[in-house]
Amino acid sequence: MPRTFVWTVALAGLAAAAFSAAPPAAHAVQEQSFEARTTSQLVDLCATPPGDPAYAQAVQFCHGFAAGALSYHRAASRPGSNPNFCGLPPSRQEAVGRFVAWARANPRVADDNPANALFRFLDANYACRR
Fold first, then answer.
1. Is the overall model pTM greater than 0.85, yes or no?
2. Does any domain span residue 24?
3. Considering only CA atoms, which of 108, 52, 94, 112 is closest in space to residue 125?
4. How many CB atoms lie within 10 A of CB 46?
């Protein structure tokens, strides 16, 4: 057998053993959170830590939900009207982090429709002053 094949098999075996011995993620996103029927489900997705096996899917869902809701709001607004939200954070990640912090500080929104809670957050923090 070629030497590279032996090393490849040995390294693959070590990697598999290390992966299977790794402790389970501390957070583990619940599958029903992807339904995003409540604000708490959306917050669960948005706050998924990088070590969670579903991290990429959860964060992408969260960002897509928020971006889609804001895009729909902008599209549904009267043409030529002034924007409703000003001074939004420069990055989507920062905006989502602020939304998560706000939702956790306002537990009364946990069972609300997540889009409604998102707009309540935006109104409370980024409403344009006219």
1. no
2. no
3. 94
4. 22
